[in-house]
């Protein structure tokens, strides 16, 4: 039976809830409709989150994203709705969505929306520096 778009998001237990770790996803095929013209809008969604007790199941995310294909939505509204829906089901420590819409009328639009769990503070970043390229000979 073929898959169908749905707004239902499935989750699974975070396999390592004691650790902050970063999940990064890129969705290059997001589409919705311009609410003014009905023409398609195309975007790449960049989703980054630090899970708490739950993680998103990828197929359900794909079907959820697909569900916007025939819906009219302003860029700002659809980006924030996706953040709200993901936050409601995941309750993550941190979530950030950047929606990079393709050119429309000569204008590229990027919308960035974030959620932070109340009281959560990220650990300080560790700067490991960079290693120089290795030569194939010793000298």
How would you characterize the overall build of this protein?
The structure is a single chain. This protein is of the alpha+beta class and 139 residues long. It has helices at 58-66, 75-90, and strands at 11-13, 23-33, 40-50, 54-56, 94-104, 107-116. Strands 2-3-5-6 form a 4-stranded antiparallel sheet, covered by helices on one side. The chain has a two-stranded antiparallel ribbon with strand order 1-4. The longest helix is centred in the middle third of the chain and has 16 residues, at 75-90. The model has no long low-confidence stretch (mean pLDDT 93).
Summarize the structure.
The chain is an alpha+beta fold. It has a domain at 38-116: GTP Cyclohydrolase I, domain 2.
Keywords:
single chain; 139 residues; alpha+beta; GTP Cyclohydrolase I, domain 2; two-stranded antiparallel ribbon; globular
| Rg, Cα atoms, Å | 19 Å
What is the N-to-C order of secondary-structure elements (H for helix, E for strand)?
Answer: EEEEHHEE
Strand order of the main beta sheet, please?
2-3-5-6
Q: What's the total count of β strands?
A: 6
CATH topology category name of the domain at 38-116: GTP Cyclohydrolase I, domain 2
Q: Largest sheet, if any?
A: 4 strands, antiparallel
- Share in helix: 10-25%
Strand content: 35-45%
CATH architecture of the domain at 38-116: 2-Layer Sandwich
Q: What is the global morphology? A: globular
Per CATH, the class of the domain at 38-116 reads Alpha Beta
Distance between the termini: 63 Å
Secondary-structure content class: alpha+beta
- Count helical runs: 2
Arithmetic mean pLDDT: 93
Low-confidence stretches: none
CATH superfamily of the domain at 38-116: GTP cyclohydrolase I, C-terminal domain/NADPH-dependent 7-cyano-7-deazaguanine reductase, N-terminal domain
């Amino acid at each position: 039976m073929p898959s169908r778009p749905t707004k239902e998001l499935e989750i699974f237990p975070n396999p390592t809830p004691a650790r902050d770790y970063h999940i990064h996803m890129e969705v290059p095929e997001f589409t919705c409709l311009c609410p003014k013209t009905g023409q398609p809008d195309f975007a790449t969604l960049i989703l980054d989150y630090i899970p708490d007790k739950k993680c998103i199941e990828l197929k359900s995310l794909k079907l959820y994203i697909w569900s916007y294909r025939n819906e009219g939505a302003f860029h700002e509204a659809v980006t924030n709705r996706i953040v709200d829906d993901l936050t409601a089901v995941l309750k993550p420590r941190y979530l950030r969505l950047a929606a990079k819409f393709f050119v429309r009328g000569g204008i590229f639009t990027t919308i960035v929306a974030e959620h932070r769990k109340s009281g959560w503070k990220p650990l300080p970043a560790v700067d490991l520096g960079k290693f120089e390229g290795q030569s194939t000979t010793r000298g």
